[in-house]
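YM 10:42: Protein maelstrom sequence, as discussed on the call
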Amino acid sequence: MIINMAPKKSAFITFLTCYRDDEIKNGKKPSSYDQLRNKLSPIWNIMSDDEKNKYKDLALKYNNSNCTTEPIKQITDLLKNSNDFLNMKKYVAEMFENIPNNQELLNKKFILLHINCHSHNGEQYYFPAEIAAIEFNLKNGLSRTYHQIIGISKIYPRGFAGSMREFSDKFHQINCWDDHPDDYQDIFLEFLTFIKGEIINHTDLKKDTLDLPYLYTIQSEIGTNMMNAKCSLERLYFTAFPEVDAEHCKSIFKIGSIEQLLLEIKKKMNLHLNHQNLRPEMSICNILEHDFYGQGLGCMYHELREVSFKCSKARVIQWMSNICIHINMYTGLNLVPGKHMATQLNDGSKLIIENEHLPLTAAELKLSKT
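YM 10:58: structure's back
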């Protein structure tokens, strides 16, 4: 096997790279290295040895790695993300071990999350374009829904526009220069209020004691993954409250794997021992990705463009429905149309009741029976 070694980085180049990464993180168009060299050389020349040693250590770590193109920040982030993933798997497994019986499991609520990103993969830039989340349990189905499209027309890095437009056209059709809600503080606090289940305000954030539940999303699919979702929420937090320490932004969210969630549900109910689950079509990914799209399940933005299958809201409804349908095959959950899965309307579209306090019967919904 041939390993292509990356060019050796000096402490000074590492210093420039870190500065450039900060420009990207703060939504600015990154400077060229020639520009940074002219701008930052005077600063480097007056830095103390202790300050320079920090960048020498980073350069050494980079040079000792086998990465050919990964920037310093990506190396450190990959290591942290790997640790986060292992900790997540351990936490979810222990959480299910502490559920005493199936009745408790049926009543336990989980939150599913999907985020479409304003994204430039080459520069590792991720900012939420659309956030959708639902709270549900196996017994009663869906209880609460959150959905928000977010604009960045005033802050997106101008040098990224072309690649970001290409990404959005392919995956969600929410362009970075279109006008969408951009009151980031209100959006962020409303999202936290949803996932915490109680009103969260500025004071709660300042206390530094906010404990949020796990949010479960797809581990990896074309266009998104767990880490991109987490990075985009961190960037939203930092953009809404730039005075907050960047490391705190990274510590607030706990993102879990929906694949791990379904696997632990099946193990708790001993469904993984059923020989039918050994069939290829019964893999975790196939269960979650089973086709359940349909007109009416997406948000208005995507419905009007007839691309509801690209909508984050449709995705989380799909995942919940497929989990409930699959578990029902072996346990008899007493599935309720409109709560555990979408109900079919007379015009061929589908409907899900997005709040447990909304009416459910055909008469209450004023649906025609003809």
